[in-house]
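Researcher: We plan to redesign the surface later, but first we want a full-length starting point. Tokens attached.
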């Protein structure tokens, strides 16, 4: 039974991460996340920064909220939006092994460049 619960959790985790990828694949939503990274913002501020219609920004905020990437705080008639980075941390954790592959490649390139004679490139060898 514990194995089936773990499997269901894993499937849910992967599905949630896939949805997060889908949500952040949209460039305007990434812009909104970038703006919210600095500080909480009102919808009107986001509309002014992004130069988009208010209904368009609200639609993107609704999708981001559904994905758990933003939270909303009501203050009288105003709604403040705040970044919720936890879903991004899950993606970052998943990307960690791939990042180490990239770092290994960069280290190999650095080693190759360090072992080349100064002032020459592999194609510059004398004939």
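Model: Full-length starting sequence:
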């Amino acid at each position: 039974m514990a194995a089936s619960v773990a499997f269901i959790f894993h499937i849910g985790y992967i599905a949630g991460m896939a949805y997060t990828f889908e949500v952040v694949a949209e460039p305007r939503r990434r812009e909104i996340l970038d703006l919210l990274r600095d500080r909480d913002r009102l919808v009107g501020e986001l509309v002014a920064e992004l130069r988009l219609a208010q209904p368009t920004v609200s639609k993107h905020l609704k999708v981001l909220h559904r994905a758990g990437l933003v939270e909303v705080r009501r203050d009288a008639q105003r709604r403040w939006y705040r970044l919720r980075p936890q879903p991004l941390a899950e993606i970052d954790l998943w990307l960690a092994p791939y990042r180490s592959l990239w770092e290994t490649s960069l280290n190999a390139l650095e080693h190759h460049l360090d072992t080349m004679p100064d002032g020459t490139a592999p194609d510059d060898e004398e004939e």
